[in-house]
Amino acid sequence: MKRVWLVLPDQLSIRMFFDAGIVDGLGERLGDRLAAVFLVSREEAAEWSARLGDIPVFFGDELTAAPGNRVASRLDARLDRRIGYHPLAIRLNHRHGFHLERMQPGHPNWMLDSDREGPLPRWGFLERAMQGWHFSGHRHIPPRLLETMRRECSALVLSNVQPRNAVPFLIAARRLRLPVIAHVASWDHTVGKGVISPHCDLYIVQNQVMEDDLSRYHDIGSERVRVTGWPQTDLFQRRRPRAAYDALLRRYGLDPSHPLVLVMGNTPTNTPYEGRFVERILSW
C-alpha cells in the first residue's frame, strides 16, 4: 500500500506537529494511509515514535545509508559543498543583506560561515543555475530511498521544508512527480535561513509576512501559499507531581524551595553571549 509520508526533520517542528495535534489529525483523516519518517537520531525520535501506535515508521538513516553508485554519491557531495545547500544560504544572505554583520569565516552556525560560500562569483545567472541543480530531480538519490518512495509513497508532508536533511526527499519526490506539502517552520520569518525549494505544491506559513517573503525572496507565488497562524502547544500544561519538579531543579544544582525565574533564550550557536546577559540581569 502506498502511504502519505510525514517527514519529520528536526525537533522543533516534530514537537509542534505532535503537541499541537497535527499528527493525530492526519492519523484520523488518513487512517492506515499515513507513515512517519524521522530524520533525527533514533534516540531523539524514541519519545515521539512511541506515540504513533500502529502508524508505520521509517528512519532517514536507513533510507539514505546505501549510496549505490559511490562515484556519483561522492561527486554529488562534492558539488553540494561548492554550489549546494550552504553556498546558496550564504549567497541568499549576501543578495538581500541578511545577517551581514554576523557572518564571519568559521562561524559555528554554518548558515553564517562565510567560508562556505563556495568558489563561484556572486553572479545572478550562476546562482540561479546553482539553485536549479540543488533542487533538481536529476541529482544523485540514494537508491534505497528512491525505490522505497517509488513503491510505498503517494505524497510528502514535511513538518519543516528548510533543513538540509530534507533535500534528498524533495528531489526524490520531484523525480517521481509526487505531490509535496511543505510547512515552513521559521518562527515568523523565512529570511537568512537558506533557500526554499520552489517545486512544492503547497506551502504552509504562519503569517502574511512569511507569505510575502516566499514571493520576494524565494519566487513562490501566493496561489500556492496558505497562512494558518502558528500551531499552539504548551510544554508546561501536562501535569506532573511536585517531586518530579524538585528532582529536575536539583539536577541543575538549584534549591526547589526558592522561586524559579525561567529565561527563554536561543541556542549558544546563535546567541553565544546570552548566558552573560542573564548573569548581568541577576547581578543588577
Summarize the entry for a quick read.
The chain is α/β, with parallel strands linked by helices. The protein contains twelve helices and seven strands. It is globular, with a radius of gyration of 21 Å.
Please explain how this structure is put together.
- With 284 residues, the protein is an alpha/beta fold.
- The chain folds into 3 domains: 3-66 and 142-227, Glycogen Phosphorylase B (Rossmann fold), CATH 3.40.50.2000; 70-134, no CATH class; 242-283, no CATH class.
- The protein contains 12 helices and 7 strands.
- It has helices at residues 11-19, 22-30, 42-49, 60-64, 70-83, 85-96, 124-134, 143-152, 167-176, 208-218, 242-251, 274-283, and strands spanning 3-8, 34-38, 57-59, 153-158, 180-183, 202-205, 225-227.
- Strands 3-2-1-4-5-6-7 form a 7-stranded parallel sheet.
- Helix 9 links the parallel strand 4 and strand 5 (180-183).
- Helix 5 packs parallel to helix 6 (85-96).
- It is globular and about 60 Å long.
